[in-house]
């Protein structure tokens, strides 16, 4: 068994990592750290995780972590690069769920207004969105197979949902102009910290847009579209995203509704998307006319995609749904780790969503 | 007191009409009809309405209705024109919440694939969205003051939310091209009929787009934009709407997020909207930077609007929230009736939303 | 107009007081205080209250409060007696929603483990549960009519729901032994403070008992049963309550399910309850066989009661539903104030619950 | 692999069976039947189950079912005995989730007011609540090992939750008199059929008791207490249950709050329950003072139990939570099947609940 640690296990993505790793056939959970909750039973915070081993949170500097083969970092930005630096130095491979290894250094420093303190690691890191960037993850897996610790910077939840809906059309060079991306997220996207916004009585029976005019996730989406654009060997500028997130009263789940201004309508869009994801164990293009639902992917690494041509005025609408804590965070991190360690990509991720 | 009837009182819009009329200072509730529930206590269906008078549903052909001054029709399309014809013939003014008196005859017949059987009434009817069409409602009020029964075709819920967000910019001629309108509705928008879609276990913890590629409400929105465009004495074609509705797990509430492709960014958009709705008792433009919430308008005739310039790429985003059963249905119908009968436009509509 | 202040207007009960007073025909809202939010627009915290006057929170020591005729205290326990002392000294009548004026001094000090610093006021205060204690409130109204400021200690939410279900049978001397009271509260009962427990993602899709073995509200319930018992001129010990509260994922609402061990089953229980509440504008005994719902009373001062004899083994089950922020807090406080000021008891409390 | 069919796979319990069997290490899903949905993709009804094999519903008389080793019946009462008879005749072992094989014939016929048409099968069937009745299930497993098809009548959801909380104290002879059982169920307990009661807008923001005065599940609970009472070799009459179910707005989950009138308080209740469930892989007695939550067991076969002595007046309160579709239906059925087929009792049931 490969020894795994979760750094920052008291947050929502951390708890989902614990749940998934505890039942993973190849990973053995060695440590779950939280400085704030160190010493406390994990089941005190999350009684759903009663019986998990180890039973208690330990501090971030738990020496057991340094003995692990892989550490999943479910920490805020800037904490990601801090832990990555000390862990890689100890030979531990890092799968980071923070924003610290997603973006080019200059883009990161501008978006987060902070200096990147692990630029060398960032250079060697791979962007962890397998459907967009599998080749780079495979290359990292090869490096890792030679005994070198590596770093994956897992994609954010909104960028994952958006890229899954956008990439096939953008890679094919069929999109020109501004892609409108109106997204809906469940409340867990705001994190575990109790605030007025996340109070049940505030979030319940409410829907709203937020984060306008510009959300911190926008540069990552533009980077994704550029990656897809250049993968397709297209010329000129890649399309840009106009991103507007909304909150709705559900715990988990994300809808990305993308309106793509297309250069031609004379394309079999359904087939384009089906071909793009053929054989992918997690991304399912629904039959023509079906709209994806968040409840269908909750708790999983799955994405459901609906393709709607004929919207009029030169637009094609593509809609994806994911679980923001699953394919948008913990489950995708495990998918990335499976690739790095050479396991079956679906290992530990076979669970289906509940029908209700 | 003006005698009022609710035709189709067993549905959600009907129940909201009953709640509002029962406490209206000028209207007296005479009859609440439902063929399916005739004879049953209203409080059996809606225990919240315990104590309301009359206590029981009567059939649609209840003769008491013919004695009323006004009838609110909360019935499906085609039933609206049927009841309107027989009621106007009896001298009863009609405020119709169905789709039957909203659209020009040809547009209606194409959208609903049915013949309009009351074309003469349709010709004389006014579109019931006061912020867009107050002059026509005033003209109808004058006709009514002369003793003539009149017909108002109240705006739909999505069109109301969309037009409130679009009209000031469109009327000013500042919008060119396709307006993207991504909207979120609470589950009551699907009506009271129990279906798999409206089952708690299906709707709960789910968000999804629906009604694609084309929703029946789209022609009404295009009509609204044309009205606003011509009110501004603009030339050329009015902008068109690309409308995509979504469901989220709330009972009541609607968000309309509009991305307006603008012809210039050199406009004080906040001021444009504030001026457009200055003095309006129901439509509130929030301070710059604030995003409206559905919970803030639930149970009321209010609309909250947030204006977000600087979205990049030539777009201005305007977001409105309403209660789909309030400003989107029953409360707006009462606002229209207040205008027709010459009452204070806010009569019976003063209630504030609950803070939670 | 009678000048009214809300002390502690930033919490949930405070916000509900503001909503109700702003539309009350006899009270004029002069000040809404919050030390933490002083200077901020009320609509920043509660956009539903946009347009209310005054528009901003002021600090607790706002001199305008001392000019008021009545102050509603929506503050934590111990803060209630502090503000009551200074306000009564300034001639302001106090309607306190904290626990400070509900219990006899010794019971209070034992339950809250704190000294009561306004024992003289407590002595003269009346327990604010009109259905149980109308005579004492009438007596206070007489005192107030002579120009003396008075203090009402409004009943708690759980005690209100429990007493409405228990009092008629207990007063009639038909109950002997331990009354089981299993109650369900919406999340607003836990207050506005964001905590892990009130986080949407924790409260959603969860139900649980809490506060065991003994909840702070229990002594107040025992006091109520003793009041009812002695009102009926019964001998021996009054029955006691075994109280167990539960949380369910709704914002507002409370169910009290009481199992009464009865001394005889040979009673027309339905009639007993109907007679007890005959003419009461707020408490409605449902037709035999109907079970009350929280949604039917949300946002109101109403209580719905269902009476179920024939449960077997000598038990009668009586179930009441209220809105914990309405009849359980803000609305009942206004009912008490209406009595004290000699207004119609229903003034400002006429609104019906929404049917959904 | 053991061949398994789900009869009645379109309902909620059926869908949960499909989800669990599809990932079970020992069962292979051969057929999922529904007369109403025959021929339709399962994923049309439940997109969460996209990718499951077989992909489509077949009719109940699908011959493939007769080739199976085991059939799980997720059908209404009376349909259970019908299918059991024809399947056992074909040599198929039956795990029935309907009420048809839970009760003695006379009790069944009285409770459901219908003749039992498979009395011989009922005689040989075992009541499927392993924590209460493991010996009988083991005996059935021995019979099955000899090649004989057998029938398990799985316990109902409320009875499972109630018995887990009651049995240790009742078996020990420490309870005398009426056990009050106030329970809360999620909306899925009302089944998949869309009704006014299960409409999102009706169930949302509502809590209520229902099914009074007497619920059909009560006789099953009394039977359970009698089984436990006699297992403890106690004399006299077993205690009886006074059962009151409530609905709360969650999809899945059940709380059973039991107030046990105990014959002595001089017992280590916590230890009594811990010992009773020691080694049980599914039933977890929480540390003293902790109250169980429904969210902690959703989607699993787990039960969480909290024990609260010192409630006063001779009562001990014991609270259990289960998932009504998990331990209360589909997962417990699989646990029973695991026992019958000699598999590890936890096979296919290892998944932990989501922390949110």
UniProtKB/TrEMBL annotation, chains A, B, C, D:
A Pfam cross-reference name: Semialdhyde_dhC_1
Keyword Protease: no
Enzyme Commission number: 1.2.1.38
Keywords in alphabetical order: Amino-acid biosynthesis, Arginine biosynthesis, Cytoplasm, NADP, Oxidoreductase
Active-site residue numbers: 157
Domain of life: Bacteria
Alphabetized Gene3D superfamilies for the sequence: Dihydrodipicolinate Reductase, domain 2 (3.30.360.10), NAD(P)-binding Rossmann-like Domain (3.40.50.720)
HAMAP family in the cross-refs: ArgC_type1
NCBIfam families for the chain: argC (TIGR01850)
Similarity field: Belongs to the NAGSA dehydrogenase family. Type 1 subfamily.
Record-given protein name: N-acetyl-gamma-glutamyl-phosphate reductase
Organism: Slackia heliotrinireducens (strain ATCC 29202 / DSM 20476 / NCTC 11029 / RHS 1)
Lineage, highest ranks first: Bacteria, Bacillati, Actinomycetota, Coriobacteriia, Eggerthellales
